Amino acid sequence: MCVLIIKPKGVKMPDARKLQMAFKANPHGCGCASSTKFFKSLSFDTFMRKLAKVGDDENCMIHFRFATHGSIKRANCHPFKQGDVYFAHNGIIDIDRTDDRTDSETAFDEMVYPAILRYGWNSEEVKTVASNLCQYGSKIALMQNGELLMFGNFIQDADGCYYSNHRFMYCANSFAQ
């Protein structure tokens, strides 16, 4: 299962070891969105170089992918972008997909983003759509103009960041060497 990490404004990035554990447990790509950066990569080293340019003074969503729907390629990494809105998801959404898209991208393109266009950012309608997608344990993050919305039960860690799950940390012993 993927991991979605939210670094709030004013909080430092998770340490490199924690990010490396997240990537090793979810090795099918990674991505980031903040008010100043947006990128996706299949390479952890490239990801870390770009992530180092995100400031502590901005909100940031970080995603490490474990492919469940859609092939392993950069385009299927989160976050997804439409206009000035970014979307990242952890979990599985029961939705019909077309082509080689992920369930997350399909839900964003067909449900969440149209609701934002119709009703506005941070509207009750958008909150309802996103919350309904989280009813089976999924977590969702949306960002527009650096403003962050989170849906689902995230875990706030001692580092001040929010995590969709800690499964990647339980794999740490498997990666030690």
TrEMBL record:
Q: Which residues form the signal peptide?
A: none
Q: Which InterPro entries match?
A: EgtC-like, GATase_2_dom, Ntn_hydrolases_N
Which Pfam families does the entry mention?
A: GATase_4 (PF13230)
Record key words, sorted: Glutamine amidotransferase
Ranges for domain Glutamine amidotransferase type-2: 1-177
Is Zinc among the key words of this record? no
Highest rank taxon of the organism: Bacteria
Entry protein name: Glutamine amidotransferase type-2 domain-containing protein
